[in-house]
Amino acid sequence: MAYKNKEDRPYEKEYKQQVARGELANRMERQRARRAMDKTGADKNKNGEADKREGKDIAHVKALSKGGSNKDGVRIESATKNRSFSRNSKGGLTSETSKKERKK
Asked: How confident is the model over 24-77, as pLDDT tens digits?
């Protein structure tokens, strides 16, 4: 829902809903993976992002929704490749391999 004024948006309520649904832990896990990648990579243009990660996503080898974590491994992928997995009607992953990868 779009809000005309930023002050009208119930951020506290949204945060509590996110915690109740269990999304907070996964968001923090993604954030830690990005920060770890940025810490190890070179940043020549000084924008706070590792140069090798610019315009790309950090993909977990085993999806967080399927019980994965940063310990299972992360890799750098293009946004289209990382977000191209087939989904079920609720938005969950049905397979961890994309259609493109299965054809190979």
From this structure: 888 999 999 988 888 888 878 888 878 888 888 888 888 888 888 889 889 988
As a whole number of angstroms, the distance between CA 78 and CA 94 comes to 20
Q: How confident is the model at residue 100 (pLDDT cuts 50, 70, 90)?
A: low
Q: Which of 28, 19, 37, 31 is nearest to 75 (CA)?
A: 37
Angle between helices 23-40 and 11-21 (to 10 degrees): 90
Phi, psi of 52 (to 5 degrees): -70, -15
Q: Residue 78: helix, strand or coil by DSSP?
A: strand
Put simply, whether the predicted model's pTM sits higher than 0.85 gets the answer no
- The CA distance from 46 to 16, in Å, is 35
